[in-house]
Amino acid sequence: MFLVKLEDVTPLSDAVFLFNQLSLEGDVKFTHNMFSLTVSNASIRFIIKLDIWDELFAEYSVDPNQCWRISLPTFQKFLWDGESYSSMTFLMHETRSRMVLEFHNSAYPNVPSWHRELTLLPSEEVDIGEVESEKNFIIEAEDFRHIIREVSPFPNDTIRVTLTHLQVKFSVAAKEIILTKQARKIQIAGYEEGDTDQFRISLHPMTFFLRLSYQSETAWFCKTMDGSHTIISIPASHFNLEYVVYFPHDRENIIYTNGVS
């Protein structure tokens, strides 16, 4: 069974436009309660994913899970061409080699629906692992943008993030920025007195992360349970939608999965 209908395609269209600046291909995944779009390739130092939970969809019925690679420029063009319609439905073609996008206009039920087809390729989705959500820190989007502008102009430098129970420091060889709890610049959870932790990120390309920062009022930092990835979560202002950026500490440990999961 596969039927997914979205009344407002704007959040998805915005994400596809953003991701298309990084890659020509992306992985779409439909599970029983969430749609995801993921971009990862060798030319960027991170993996980025858009998660949209089923509550945001007008209809959502998926069984079994589906995961495929698609062309982002083609997907973006279809979304832009169909922006005059009030809703879009994902349907699986009977050959399972293509996905049908069916655009409707509920205000004009007599107007024929508009169809386009996306070619489906085997997925190259990255298996990230579980998130250690109980240990994290949160900063305001304005401070995140300040860090992006001040630190990411050094594209070849990995940003070292050092955390204690009282403060966080973002540093490269030529620059450092410190945010403290005392100044109410950071919220820290799961870290006690004497605890320290380190994260590694790369906020490059700078324009991409600046645009991403405007999707939310905060940025959440944490790690995976096995410590293989640093994670920045951007909970979008639109309810039930989230951008998640993963920074691998060792790219050789990435596991790739294919096809229907």
Summarize the topology.
Blueprint: E1 2-6, H1 10-19, E2 25-30, E3 34-39, E4 47-53, E5 59-62, E6 66-71, H2 72-81, E7 87-92, E8 98-104, E9 114-119, E10 121-122, E11 126-127, E12 131-140, H3 141-151, E13 159-164, E14 167-172, E15 175-180, E16 187-189, E17 196-201, H4 206-213, E18 218-224, E19 229-235, E20 241-248, E21 255-256
Antiparallel strand pairs: 1-5, 1-7, 2-3, 2-6, 3-4, 4-20, 6-10, 7-8, 8-9, 11-21, 12-16, 12-18, 13-14, 13-17, 14-15, 18-19, 19-20
InterPro entries: DNA_clamp_sf (IPR046938)
Structure, explained:
With 261 residues, the protein is mostly beta strands. It folds into 2 domains: 126 residues, DNA Polymerase III, Chain A, domain 2 (Roll); 97 residues, Proliferating Cell Nuclear Antigen. The protein is 15% helix and 45% strand. It is built from 4 helices and 21 strands. β2 and β3 form a beta hairpin. α1 packs antiparallel against α2 and α3 runs antiparallel to α4. It is elongated and about 65 Å long. The C terminus is likely disordered.
